[in-house]
Amino acid sequence: MEDIDLARSLLEKEKWNLVIVKEGRVLFSSRERGIAPFFRAVQGMGKSLHNAAVADHIVGLAVAMLCLYARIASVYAGIASQGALDMLKGQGVIVNTESTVPYISNYNGTDLCPFERMAGNSENPAQLFSTLKSIFGGPDDAGEAFS
User: At the top level of CATH, which class does the domain 3-142 belong to?
Assistant: First the structure.
């Protein structure tokens, strides 16, 4: 079974919100909503995420940029924003989704997701990572593995 197929299967069967698989092994999984668990995985795992597969219920621009930052090879999204799909495909990431939306909304559906907005205002994945680190915290040298 391909890594992306395993990640998608576990996402659906185990009711996880995020699954990261590489070489047939689950590197990370979470039932927590939002971007924080993926940010923590990227921050903590460094280069070990290169060429991994990510399955996430919702993939917007921020998740897409973190995937590029971590050099993820393939992504499955239950729901993906058009901007996220375009960005990932434009960088050669294999992407599959159940549903595409113009953008990701905030939790109550009244406005753009704040992380979608933040990603749209970021010049590149490294800048977004730095901004997220200032929000979520972490060691000062976190992410250096990607330099």
Answer: alpha beta
Q: Token pair 């997701």 is at which residue? A: 113
pLDDT tens profile 44-76 = 999 999 999 999 999 999 999 999 999 999 999
| CA–CA separation, 83 and 81 (whole Å) | 5
Reported as type and span, the H/E element at residue 114 is helix 114-120
Instruction: Extract the runs of DSSP E, i.e. beta strands, from the chain.
Output: 18-22, 25-30, 53-59, 74-81, 94-101
Q: What is the CA radius of gyration of the chain?
A: 14
The DSSP H or E segment spanning 13 is: helix 3-13
Q: Residue 118: which of 100, 140, 133 has the closest Cα?
A: 133
Confidence of residue 140 (pLDDT cuts 50, 70, 90): low
User: What b/e readout covers 109-133, taking b as 16+ CB neighbours within 10 angstroms?
Assistant: eeebbebbbbbbebeebeebbebbb
Q: How far apart are the first and last CA of the chain?
A: 32
For the sheet containing 18-22, what is the strand order?
A: 25-30, 18-22, 53-59, 74-81, 94-101
Which residues, in sequence order, are bridge partners of residue 29? 19
